[in-house]
């Protein structure tokens, strides 16, 4: 049917700096529960990659097993994705990044993957400073197996069934700082502004990013007595600093007060602006980061914000002194030594 | 070659008036030492000197799972007929370890030789053994003033004694010794002096009473000596491997260690950058995870491990199979189960790898039977993994991997790398998209794309969960069946692509033998024994891969009885064959097994064969 002559001209769809619409960053329809924190995180991931103008074809998504690890199906459909094995995403990601260092690697795993079955792989990933964004969708329970405690559940936290956790939680931000990650932050799935700024800064970073996002499980861990519920987070979230991010392709309009704000220049020329909300906050000092986290844990508060950043430490691909091109597609002439080389080796064995 | 060489012997040896006919180029020497005492260098010089004299030779290191201070034995076999399997009977013992000397000499057959320190009297245990006592400490002290080096130099004295007694070519020996210590001139001089001291002592003070002598041949001209792990490493390098993720485990570590050495030499760009990445992972789970991550992203990726590592890799192996990701796994088999005997050999991972992981899984296995095949299959594995989009396992073992073997030099590949069915952005533009798991060509091998392919339709979602042919999550019965049926058909395609068996068939024999890997050496020798000693002519098929090709079925079909020779308790390959054969043929299979941790020898095969055939 022809459009009426009087209808207004549809406005050109909004696009980002590489001419893509936000639609180009979407994924399949989520199959997670309505209200799941993970869905909000997926939305922020879409926004962050759209706003940063990263071509989705230049991203690879990696995940383990669990509700969180299913979520890469719900964003960035135009990116290759690998939903691997429980707790082993870090090793898969390591292989993938080494095979093609030119890609942006975005990893998503849960607290079960990260703090329990895959704790070893998590630790060694941190040590290597592999260039990768690792989003931990942290809800303190195993959702897919119907609500058992995970290793990030707080002491005294209660299951719906009344079972109380009496084992100490693993704080993955403290671990990450200790083990060598170069970008360590915590956010809350309900804090749109902070999470989006962190994700954009993460995209600008070159090295291992650990983003521990408290993401309430509405089905198994959002009740009275849980310390990972929306209500608990609203009452106990305490930001260590206000996170602002200015991408490299935008002008920095606002001045800042060096007495109250840290300005971090990222690898790609973007700026991270961190306005102190805490005494003794110093995001370039690992000891003060760990101190702040441990103190907040003692007070029963959930500290969020940017805890630690190091933009100077070489990432794993630099340490390995690899060629700039993807190893995956190096031509035969680069990867198969010559006939003369084989002859020479054979001669040395005679 | 003359059987009677007495005339050619030095006067001192003739004076001994050997009671038996000379035994030329056909005996084995065992040096019993303590690990950590530098005996490796001495044994390597002995081995290479015999090789340099043109005589076919093989060496086997029997060592403990320990760093220093425990008994170690090194056996060298010279064989003018070219047999390289372990020889069951020892002819010459060099008893350098007082802890084991008695036990060692008691194990010798009558008429054997024992070279030993004069401080121990071995003759008292065995009147029927020819003993040559040598004052090792005195001879060593005379050439090595530095007391702390004497432990290391002492072993070189026995090299000199053996050289004189068994008529080794001293020019060859000196050349090999200087090659051994190429980077250490002082050490070379010291060791050469020790060799000469031993030689001189034997010449002046020992009277040869044994029949064993070496005589120059030309059977090793142009050949190389290499261990299987180095050969596999070379295969991987010439296959263009780019990502290596591994976890150290005996006896596989030297695959990757030697690969690193080679790649640092031959795979660095002019600007100093590496065309590879090697990661020592935190465990075998991470090692195999790295392989599939890299393989998924398009790299030629590998790991090397042994039995315990294979067990840990089981879950990922299923992912690689089901999600169809290339990857190469070298398994240098050792004795299991559990920790087992880490420094002893076994063909024990056949069944566990064939079906590694839960659910319906089947894996491609390549079975190298020589160092040459470690190289060739090391290369082929990468082509097959990418062509078939599946994990490919290369099953070597400790015997092949860690021992030195003679070989024809390796040949440069005559075909370019086969990178398999990978769609480019241009192909996607022409086709308008693709279905990751659809059988387009009828060979059950689908097309894949690599991350970074610049086309909006390039991406797909890789998962180990149920999926349809568009790589979408699915629990639909028909989707699952479709994928699994296609994977089974893909395995049929693999049958036609893997290395075919090697067959020796005369068209008359009713009895066939099947073997694989390092069992081949013993079977080749055993077949000669059976023919010579019992007049039994056998046909032979050496398996080189799983899935089995049609030729294997035909071989079994055309014989009345087929003996499957292997180095494990449970007849693992025989079991695998049974699963693949029509029921009426499975009754033809007989089993010969050897599983004490030592490499299989021909006599054991012959005896077991003769027993079962009731000859």
Could you name the key traits of this structure?
heterodimer; A: about 350 residues; Rossmann fold; eight-stranded mixed beta sheet; about 30% helix; B: about 625 residues; alpha/beta; Pyruvate-ferredoxin Oxidoreductase, domain 3; 4 domains; disordered N terminus
Short summary:
The complex is a heterodimer of chains A (350) and B (615). Chain A is an alpha/beta fold and 350 residues long.
Q: Give the distance, in angstroms, between the N- and C-terminal Cα atoms of chain B.
A: 33 Å
Work out the largest interface and the residue count of each chain.
A-B, 60 and 72 residues
What's the CATH class label of the largest domain in chain B? Answer: Alpha Beta
The stretches of 5 or more residues of chain A where confidence is low (pLDDT under 50) are none
Low-confidence stretches of chain B: 1-18
Helix content of chain B: 25-40%
Structural class of chain B: alpha/beta
Radius of gyration of chain B: 27 Å
Count of separate DSSP helical elements of chain B: 22
CATH superfamily of the largest domain in chain B: Pyruvate-ferredoxin oxidoreductase, PFOR, domain III
Q: What is the CATH class of chain A?
A: Alpha Beta
The chain-level mean pLDDT of chain A equals 95
Outline of chain A, from the CA principal axes?
globular
- Number of strand segments of chain A: 13
Question: What amount of the residues of chain B lies in strands?
Answer: 15-25%
- Backbone structural class of chain A: alpha/beta
CATH-level-4 superfamily name of chain A: Thiamin diphosphate (ThDP)-binding fold, Pyr/PP domains
Number of domains of chain A: 1
**Rg on CA atoms of chain A, Å:** 22 Å
Strand content of chain A: 15-25%
What is the fold named in CATH at topology level of chain A? Rossmann fold
Overview of this structure, please?
The complex is a heterodimer of chains A (350) and B (615). With 350 residues, chain A is an alpha/beta fold. Chain A has a single domain, classed as Thiamin diphosphate (ThDP)-binding fold, Pyr/PP domains (Rossmann fold), CATH 3.40.50. Chain A is 31% helix and 19% strand. Chain A has an eight-stranded mixed β-sheet, with helices on both faces. In chain A, strands 10-12-11 form a three-stranded antiparallel β-sheet. In chain A, strands 5-6 form a two-stranded antiparallel sheet. In chain A, helix 1 (37-52) crosses helix 7 (192-204). The mean pLDDT of chain A is 95. With 615 residues, chain B is of the alpha/beta class. Chain B folds into four domains: 6-213, Pyruvate-ferredoxin oxidoreductase, PFOR, domain III (Pyruvate-ferredoxin Oxidoreductase, domain 3); 226-407, Thiamin diphosphate (ThDP)-binding fold, Pyr/PP domains (Rossmann fold), CATH 3.40.50; 425-497, no CATH class; 502-613, Rossmann fold (3-Layer(aba) Sandwich). Chain B has 22 helices and 23 strands. In chain B, helix 9 (253-266) links the parallel strand 10 (243-246) and strand 11. The longest helix of chain B is centred in the N-terminal third of the chain and has 21 residues, at 185-205. At the A-B interface, strand 2, helix 3, helix 5, helix 11 and helix 12 of A face strand 9, helix 8, strand 11, helix 10 and helix 12 of B. Strand 2 of chain A pairs parallel with strand 17 of chain B, so a sheet runs across the interface.
């Amino acid at each position: 049917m022809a459009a009426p002559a009087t209808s207004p001209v549809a406005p050109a769809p909004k696009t980002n700096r590489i001419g893509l619409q936000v639609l180009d960053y979407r994924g399949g329809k989520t199959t997670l529960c309505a209200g799941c924190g993970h869905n909000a995180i997926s939305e922020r991931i879409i926004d962050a990659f759209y706003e940063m103008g990263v071509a989705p074809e230049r991203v690879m998504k990696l995940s383990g097993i669990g509700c969180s690890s299913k979520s890469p199906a719900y964003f960035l459909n135009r990116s290759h994705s690998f939903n691997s094995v429980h707790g082993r995403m870090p090793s898969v990601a390591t292989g993938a990044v080494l095979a093609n260092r030119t890609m942006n690697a975005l990893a998503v795993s849960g607290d079960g993957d990260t703090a329990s079955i895959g704790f070893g792989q998590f630790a060694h990933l941190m040590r290597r400073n592999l260039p990768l964004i690792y989003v931990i969708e942290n809800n303190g329970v195993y959702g897919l197996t119907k609500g058992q405690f995970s290793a990030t559940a707080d002491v005294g936290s209660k299951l719906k069934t009344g079972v109380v956790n009496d084992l100490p939680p693993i704080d993955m931000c403290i671990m990450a700082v200790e083990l060598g990650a170069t970008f360590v932050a915590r956010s809350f799935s309900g804090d749109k502004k902070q999470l989006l700024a962190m994700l954009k800064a993460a995209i600008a970073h070159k090295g291992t990013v650990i983003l521990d996002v408290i993401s309430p499980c509405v089905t198994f861990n959002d009740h009275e007595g849980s310390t990972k519920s929306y209500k608990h987070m609203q009452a106990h979230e305490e930001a260590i600093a206000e996170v602002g991010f200015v991408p490299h392709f935008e002008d920095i309009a606002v001045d800042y007060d060096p007495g109250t704000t840290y300005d971090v220049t990222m690898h790609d020329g973007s700026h991270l602006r961190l306005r102190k909300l805490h005494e003794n906050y110093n995001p370039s000092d690992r000891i003060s980061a760990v101190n702040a986290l441990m103190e907040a844990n003692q007070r029963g508060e959930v500290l969020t914000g940017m805890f630690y950043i190091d933009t100077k430490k070489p990432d794993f691909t630099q340490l390995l002194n690899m060629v700039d091109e993807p190893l995956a597609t190096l031509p035969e002439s680069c990867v198969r030594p010559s006939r003369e080389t084989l002859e020479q080796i054979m001669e040395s064995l005679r | 070659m003359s059987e009677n060489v007495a005339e050619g012997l030095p006067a001192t040896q003739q004076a001994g008036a050997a009671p038996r006919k000379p035994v030329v180029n056909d005996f084995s020497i065992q040096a019993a030492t303590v690990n950590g005492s530098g005996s490796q260098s001495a044994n390597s010089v002995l081995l290479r000197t015999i090789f340099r004299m043109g005589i076919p030779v093989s060496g086997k290191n029997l060592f403990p799972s320990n760093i220093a201070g425990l008994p170690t034995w090194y056996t060298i076999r010279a064989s003018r007929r070219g047999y390289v399997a372990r020889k069951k009977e020892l002819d010459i013992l060099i008893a350098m370890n007082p802890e084991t000397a008695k036990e060692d000499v008691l194990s010798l057959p009558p008429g054997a030789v024992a070279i030993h320190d004069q401080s121990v009297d071995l003759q008292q245990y065995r009147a029927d053994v020819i003993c040559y006592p040598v004052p090792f400490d005195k001879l060593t002290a005379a050439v090595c003033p530095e007391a702390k080096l004497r432990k290391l130099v002492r072993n070189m004295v026995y090299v000199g004694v053996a050289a004189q007694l068994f008529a080794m070519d001293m020019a060859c020996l000196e050349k090999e010794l200087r090659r051994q210590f190429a980077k250490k001139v002082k050490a070379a001089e010291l060791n050469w002096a020790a060799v000469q001291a031993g030689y001189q002592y034997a010449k002046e003070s020992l009277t040869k009473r044994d029949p064993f002598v070496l005589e120059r041949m030309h059977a090793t001209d142009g050949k190389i000596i290499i261990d299987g792990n180095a050969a596999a490493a070379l295969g991987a390098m010439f296959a263009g491997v780019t990502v290596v993720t591994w976890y150290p485990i005996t006896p596989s570590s030297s695959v990757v260690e030697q690969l690193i050495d080679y790649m640092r030499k031959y795979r660095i760009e002019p600007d100093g950058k590496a065309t590879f990445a090697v990661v020592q992972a935190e465990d075998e789970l991470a090692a195999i995870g790295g392989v599939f991550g890299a393989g998924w992203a398009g790299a030629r990726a590998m790991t090397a491990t042994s039995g315990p590592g294979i067990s840990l890799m089981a879950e990922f192996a299923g992912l690689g199979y089901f999600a169809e990701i290339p990857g190469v796994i070298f398994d240098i088999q050792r004795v299991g189960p559990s920790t087992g005997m880490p420094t002893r050999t076994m063909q024990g991972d056949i069944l566990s790898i064939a079906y590694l992981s839960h659910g319906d899984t089947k894996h491609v296995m390549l079975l190298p039977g020589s160092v040459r095949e470690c190289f060739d299959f090391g290369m082929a594995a990468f082509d097959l993994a990418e062509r078939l989009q599946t994990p490919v396992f290369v099953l070597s073992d400790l015997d092949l991997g860690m021992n030195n073997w003679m070989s024809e030099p390796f040949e440069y590949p005559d075909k370019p790398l086969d990178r398999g069915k990978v769609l480019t952005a241009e192909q996607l533009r022409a086709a308008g998209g693709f279905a990751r798991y659809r059988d387009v060509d009828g060979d059950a091998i689908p097309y894949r794309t690599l991350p970074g392919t610049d086309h909006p339709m390039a991406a797909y979602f890789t998962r180990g969960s149920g999926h349809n042919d568009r790589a979408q999550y699915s629990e639909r019965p028909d989707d699952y069946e479709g994928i699994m049926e296609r994977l089974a058909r893909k395995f049929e395609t693999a049958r036609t692509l893997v290395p075919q068996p090697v067959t020796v068939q005369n068209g008359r024999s009713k009895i066939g033998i099947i073997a694989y890997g390092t069992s081949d050496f013993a079977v080749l020798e055993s077949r000669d024994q059976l023919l010579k000693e019992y007049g039994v002519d056998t046909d032979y098929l050496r398996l080189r891969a799983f899935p089995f090709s049609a030729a294997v079925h035909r071989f079994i079909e055309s014989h009345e009885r087929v003996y499957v020779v292997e180095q494990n308790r449970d007849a693992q390959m025989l079991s695998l064959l049974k699963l693949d054969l029509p029921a009426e043929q499975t009754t033809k299979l007989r089993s010969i097994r050897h599983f004490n941790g030592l490499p299989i020898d021909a006599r054991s095969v012959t005896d077991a064969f003769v027993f079962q055939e009731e000859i």
